[in-house]
Amino acid sequence: MTVIAFETASRPAPAPVRGAVSDPCTTCTVRQLSLCAGLDGETQGRLKAINQTAVLEPHRLLFQEGDAADYVYTVTSGQVSLSMSLPDGRRQITEFLGPGDFIGLGLDSDTASHSLTAETLTEVHACRFPRRAFAGLMEETPALGRRVLNFASRRIAAAREQQLMLGRKTAVERVASFLLQAARRSVARGAAASPLTLAMTRGEIADHLGLTLETVSRGFSRLRQLGVIRLDGADRVTLNDLDRLAELAGCD
Fold this sequence. Notes:
Layout: E1 2-3, H1 41-50, E2 52-56, E3 61-63, E4 71-77, E5 80-85, E6 91-97, E7 102-103, E8 107-108, E9 113-114, E10 117-120, E11 124-130, H2 131-140, H3 142-168, H4 171-188, E12 196-197, H5 202-209, H6 213-225, E13 229-231, E14 236-239, H7 242-248
Parallel strand pairs: 1-2
Antiparallel strand pairs: 2-11, 3-10, 4-7, 4-11, 5-6, 5-10, 8-9, 12-14, 13-14
Helix pairs in contact: 2-3, 4-6, 4-7, 5-6
């Protein structure tokens, strides 16, 4: 297993790896959330053999829309956004991904290129696997294929929820839904539902929710006025009433 710095589509180049360990798998805190969960020792060993680990600084591109899909990734710490761009420069952030998430499902099957752009929001630690070697391993080990299918199924469900949110929900409902989803992800990763430390800016949240920056800010203010949340700075949100938040998100 090698330890490298990512090649990226952005400039300047990412910072070199810091604090690398000889076997990062032994210190990985998200193994039970990641691809490795449920795999036997032999399959884990074969994954480790093609793994390249690295640290990427905030606001760097893992890849851009249209780039050749040479690698797939598992995030072990930090936050990443996935987005699509319109010709006029506008973008839609489709997902925010974090520890344990797999990046490599958004491929154009005809050209083996990325159909999305992946950008780090924070410092990100990740495992990187050459796509061809990974695909070969999937064919040889059905358990790994099932793990990837599980990730794909969850992403399809998330996309449907996103479509519903963008098509039918009001601005306040969208902001409430975003916070509720963030709380659920936090719990799934073994942390508390509240308080939340948001890695993304209000502008990035707006690009995710299909709203303007001003509308997102008003949505947060409205939830604060209702006593559902408390804002402790720009990136920290305390959820005072999860049941009420679910009602406002249209999930009651």
